[in-house]
Structure formats: structure tokens, C-alpha cells
Amino acid sequence: MGEWKCAVCGRSFSNEHGLNVHIARMHGDPESPEARPRRREKRAAAPEAPLLAAFTSTAEDLDRATRLVEQCCDGLAVVLDSATRLRRAYIERADQVRKLQAQLAALDAQEA
Question: How confident is the model over 10-26, as pLDDT tens digits?
């Protein structure tokens, strides 16, 4: 791409300014003004972002985080209940198939 290369990750840039911005955002001081927007973008893009955003030092935020965790657990309970019902139905069907196979084998034995 260009002649300016990052010494940390090897990415190339067409000018020095691009390289400096990259270094500040990706490898530099996390408190620098250039780094802050990039960190926010990454946090917002992460699937766990709502949960992570909820964990701060205030009691209100802790309550919000607790509600989020409870919602996730409730959703997981619904999925697990559905999976359990499906598993039980599968086991019942498999038992029915085994019984039918045994009956067919008995009929085949009588014919032979």
C-alpha cells in the first residue's frame, strides 16, 4: 500500500499521519484522545457490549446488570426446556421404533 509500515503489526500506510493515527489507536496509550473512539467502537461492536456496559460502579447500574443477567438466564431456561422436551420426544420415538423393529423381527422369524 504505502511506504510507512507499523513496527508493531506490520500494517502499511501511504503517509506518516496515517501510521501515527494507527499506532495511537491500535497500539498507543489507551488514554490518548485518538484511542478513545476506537475503543468505544470495539466495545459497541462486541456481542457482550450491553452486559459489559452495565457493569459500572453505581448501584443503579449494578441493578441494571443484574436484570440483564436474569433476562439471559430466563432466555436460557426457555431454550433448555425446549431442548429437554425435544430430547424426551426423540427418546419416546426411538423406543417406539425399537418396539416395532422387534415386532417385525418376530414376524420374520415366524415366516421363516
Answer: 888 888 888 888 887 88
The answer to whether 1 touches 14, Cβ cutoff 8 Å, is yes
pLDDT tens, position by position, 50-63: 555 555 556 677 77
Question: d(Cα 26, Cα 107) in Å, to the nearest integer?
Answer: 73
Which pLDDT belongs to residue 1?
Answer: 47
Mapped onto helix, strand or coil, the DSSP state of residue 72 is helix
Domain boundaries, the chain: 1-45, 49-112
Distance of CA 10 to the CA centre of its chain: 29
For 11, counting Cβ atoms within 10 Å of its Cβ (0-12 exposed, 13-18 middle, 19+ buried), the class is: middle
Mean pLDDT value of segment 35-50: 52
Cβ distance 75 to 69 under 8 Å?
no
Cell 450491553 belongs to 50
HSE of 28, CA atoms in CB hemisphere, 13 A: 16
